[in-house]
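Appendix B. One record, verbatim.
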Amino acid sequence: VQLQASGGGLVQPGGSLRLSCAASGFAFSDTHMNWVRRTPEKGIEFVSEISKEGEIRNYYGSAQGRFTISRDNSRRTVDLQMNSLKPEDTGRYYCKRPPNDWGQGTLVTVSS
């Protein structure tokens, strides 16, 4: 299983980033997918999840109303569009295949 996240970087408060995760080594279209983050303040947080066909999308904590998860099964990717970013969104973001396959993550820094 490989989960390659990309798209992180430095952004000012109020800005946007789009993270992408490229998956390989498993039946992607048969698997729910998650985005999880590790922040300095709160440690590991569950951010969002998406069902196999993308018809069910859930958001947790402060991600609600600001983040949008999507997937493209033909390309084997799962994305996280993040808008209205705040300094407390700073952290490393991981795509995760349940129950416990993680990629290396991508670093997001929200700072002026």
